[in-house]
Design brief:
Blueprint (H helix, E strand, L loop, with lengths): L1 E6 L3 H12 L4 E8 L2 H15 L4 E4 L5 H11 L3 E4 L6 H11 L2 E4 L14 H4 L2 H6 L3 E4 L7 H13 L2 E14 L10 H8 L3 E5 L2 E5 L5 E6 L4 E8 L3 H8 L5 E7 L2 H12 L8 E3 L2 E3 L1 H8 L11 E14 L2 E12 H8 L3 H18 L7 E4 L5 H10 L5 E4 L2
Parallel strand pairs: 1-2, 1-4, 2-3, 4-5, 5-6, 6-17, 7-12
Antiparallel strand pairs: 7-15, 8-9, 8-12, 10-11, 11-12, 13-14, 15-16, 16-18
Helix pairs in contact: 1-2, 1-13, 3-4, 7-14, 13-14
The structure holds NADPH dihydro-nicotinamide-adenine-dinucleotide phosphate.
NADPH dihydro-nicotinamide-adenine-dinucleotide phosphate binds next to helix 1 and helix 13.
Length: 397
């Protein structure tokens, strides 16, 4: 029925490709292209072994818009799924417009030379996508992604108005290594070392990086963990699209070992993105550090424990004050047994496939540039559970 071109061949892409292959009635043709073709071929071999399906692979530099446009024109997909890095977003959107193809990604644009992400650059494409009759779906991972859809579901079914939103992301997994990130190390470290920010009564309030802490009792055996306030990209669109919102915050759990390493990296300048001279060469400290860290895609066999990502919301329904929590629990070892990946890649790759499914089946295909909460949450959440990420709603008050 639909042909997809998937760009990027890392941990998240591997899950998305396998899940597209599993949904064979929807994704009849899959082409996987990335900077290093060998990584595409490894994923293709695993798909063949697990699902008996052949997928095509190609090499492409997604920062080279003419090269990517030529690839898109030769493949003629219904959709390009960008599962490379946030640096490529605008180039891939440009190529999609040139070639007349729909677009989807999992993370918003970030300029390589400024550790700062914001939707303004991608929202500025809205008129061009609308005029071309094309759809661009932004942030179809877990957070952003499923968290936005949880909010849309809550707004549609659980509340008349949501007043307070706390998105809480726990990775209670243990990989047994002194330090590793669970998705691309460069992007991860840029994000966690940024200043915190939350939204209250129409204003953004800044905090020092990871300086605010709370404790949350996670369900299903995970228990109480420390969570740190961070800025996260879905807040930017949610504060525009949720009715009656007064406060929105994002929290993530970190263990002491992670925080101690982060502090040392920061203290000695290893998180820096300004090039420094080293033996006659310019190197970017963070890129050098990222090169030394484990590939997140390799953590699958050694990671045990669970993730729990959800939205805690306080608001009104039928004149009564309500507190409701929507969440998913995902087990690292179950993901490894199913697809050879750890749960962070899994919880991002599955919604990338489900977002693509919504788009190519027409359930969510509207010309323009959209964040996930702007679409009908029901078909997405039905498919999300069916493809491996069941979710629950709990009434807390
Ligand atoms: P990886 O680093 O494992 O994979 C990135 C892939 O993109 C690699 O295969 C890399 O190629 C490829 N790539 C990089 N630059 C280019 C380029 N110029 N042209 C073509 N291919 C390129 O990252 P992850 O899989 O961990 O993360 C993928 C994306 O998912 C990121 O944008 C990340 O921010 C996002 N993410 C979103 C989450 C969410 O919940 N929304 C959660 C986690 C991640 P090569 O193999 O040659 O290095």
């Amino acid at each position: 029925m639909a042909k997809v071109l998937i760009i990027g061949a890392g941990g998240v892409s591997s899950v998305a490709v396998h899940k597209c292959a599993q949904a064979a009635d929807v994704f009849t043709d899959i082409v996987l292209a990335s900077r290093t073709r060998a990584r595409c071929d490894t994923i293709a071999a695993s798909v063949k072994q697990r699902f008996g399906r052949s997928i095509e692979t190609a090499r492409v530099d997604a920062d080279n818009v003419p090269e990517l446009t030529a690839l898109i024109r030769s493949v003629q997909p219904d959709l390009v799924m960008n599962i490379a890095l946030p640096y490529q977003d605008l180039h891939i959107m440009d190529a999609c417009l040139e070639a007349g193809v729909n677009y989807l990604d999992t993370a918003n644009y970030e300029p390589p030379d400024d550790a700062h992400f914001e939707y303004k650059w991608q929202w500025a494409y809205a008129d061009r996508f609308r005029q071309a009759g094309l759809c661009a779906l932004l942030g179809s991972g877990f957070d952003p992604g499923v968290t936005n859809v949880f909010c849309a579901y809550a707004q549609k079914h659980l509340f008349d108005e949501i007043h307070v939103l706390d998105i809480i992301d726990a990775n209670a997994g243990d990989h047994g290594l002194p330090f590793a990130t669970n998705f691309n190390p460069e992007i991860n470290l840029r994000e966690v070392s940024a200043r915190g920010r939350y939204w209250e009564r129409g204003e953004w309030v800044e905090t020092d990086p990871l300086s605010w802490k709370m404790s949350f009792d996670f369900p299903e055996g995970i228990g109480r963990r420390s969570c740190y306030l961070m800025y996260h990209e879905e807040l930017e669109s949610l504060v525009k699209n949720l009715r009656g919102l007064r406060r929105a915050r994002f929290w993530m759990t970190f263990g002491d070992a992670y925080l101690n390493h982060l502090q040392v990296f920061r203290n000695v300048g290893l998180i820096g993105i300004e090039p420094v001279d080293f033996q006659g060469q310019k190197i970017v400290p963070l890129q050098f550090l990222a090169r030394l860290l484990p590939d997140p895609a390799s953590l699958g066999p050694r990671t045990v424990g669970k993730t729990c990502i959800g939205c805690l919301m306080r608001g009104q329904k039928d004149g009564k004050e309500r507190v409701r929590y929507i969440y998913n629990i995902c087990d690292h070892q179950e993901c490894y047994r199913e697809l050879g990946s750890q749960a962070i890649s899994y919880t991002t790759g599955v919604p990338a496939m489900v977002g693509a499914m919504m788009l190519v089946t027409g359930a969510w295909n509207r010309p323009g540039v959209w964040n996930m909460e702007q679409m009908d949450p029901d078909p997405f959440l039905e498919a999300l559970g069916r493809y491996g990420l069941p979710w629950k709603v709990v009434d807390l008050a």
